[in-house]
Amino acid sequence: MNKLWVEKYRPKTLDDVVFGNTQQYNFFKSIISEKKLPNLLFVGHQGTGKTSLSGALLNDLNFHPEDILRVNCSDDKIDKIRKDVKNFAYTMPIGSTKVVQLEELDYLSLEGQALLRSLIEEVSSTCRFIGTANYQNKIIPAIKDRFSTFVFQAPNKDAMLLKVAEILEQEKIEFSIEDLEKLLSVSYPSLRKMIHLAETSSKNGVLNLVSSETSNDWKFEVLSALEQNNFCAVRTILCSNVQPENASDIFTFLYSNIHKAKIDQDQGIILIAEYMYKHAFASDPEINIAAMCIELSLLVK
């Protein structure tokens, strides 16, 4: 079975990683050149490459596979820390150091984080820890104090476009720049989602956003409606897709793409911000979003 593109093109070295800016790249490049790996905590939006960066760093530092333990803290709770991680960290490494990759560290219980805090100090001479998290505020200060925290910035948009274009060319997929930019608009800042949508939209050697599962993605529909200044359609699409888990995503998406509509941009952003604030208090988010769309329609030039 062929690998999914997300895995097939996962970065193998630091130079394969898409960064937000050159300062980020230089920071990790210095770790590789000095061969000194500190305890690292990567925090940022899902799909922005935190896990990929962790793996690329370990590849560039030539860690032996048996010196690496990966733990998903959303699945493996405190028993995993108490048994497997502790046993792994206390044994001598094949190379100079062992590494524990703690995925989704923000999902680890407070009790598990307390246990981890002591373990990090006890094995500091032979073991390092790399944690990833979406929400830094869910990690206790005592843990953060033991890590060099790196807030993972959103990738550079041009770099994301170039990365996905390179993948499409390697897969011999024909594409237009317009379709590639649409993929970026609905995916940003998640490079993982952009690659996934590019794969599922590629049929018979062509990137086709109309005949793929992306045609059912509300973001594509909203993009088209915004370009036509059709806020009645925007309202219909958004209100039919309001779910507790994606309501906040609606405001972020509109903010990122409001420039596609011919309205007063400053006033549009202010309105989105106001209704995003009201969302926290609205008993019915659908009504709140509908009201926002009505007000945005009044700004049409």
Notes on the protein architecture:
The chain is an alpha/beta fold and 301 residues long. The protein has two domains: 5-151, Rossmann fold (3-Layer(aba) Sandwich); 157-297, no CATH class. 50% of the residues lie in helices and 10% in strands. It has helices spanning 5-8, 22-34, 50-60, 78-90, 110-122, 141-144, 157-170, 177-187, 191-200, 218-227, 231-239, 247-257, 265-279, 285-297; strands at residues 40-43, 68-72, 98-103, 127-133, 148-151, 202-203, 206-207. The strands form two sheets. Strands 2-3-4-1-5 form a five-stranded parallel β-sheet, with helices on both faces. The chain has a two-stranded antiparallel ribbon with strand order 6-7. Helix 7 runs parallel beside helix 9, helix 8 crosses helix 9 and helix 11 (231-239) packs antiparallel against helix 14. The longest helix has 15 residues, at 265-279. The termini are far apart.
List keywords for this structure.
301 residues; alpha/beta; Rossmann fold; 2 domains; two-stranded antiparallel ribbon; 14 helices
- Strand order of the biggest β-sheet: 2-3-4-1-5
Total strands: 7
**Strand share of the residues?**
5-15%
Going by helix content, strand content and strand pairing, the class is alpha/beta
Query: What is the rounded distance between the termini?
Result: 52 Å
CATH architecture designation of the largest domain: 3-Layer(aba) Sandwich
> What is the molecular shape?
globular
Can you tell me the CATH topology of the largest domain? Rossmann fold
Question: Could you say how many structural domains there are in total?
Answer: 2
Largest sheet: 5 strands, parallel
Query: In terms of per-residue confidence, which ranges show pLDDT below 50 for 5 or more consecutive residues?
Result: none
Order of helices and strands: HHEHEHEHEHEHHHEEHHHHH
* Radius of gyration of CA atoms, rounded to a whole number: 22 Å
Helix content, binned percent = 40-55%
Number of helices: 14
Instruction: Give the overall average pLDDT.
Output: 90
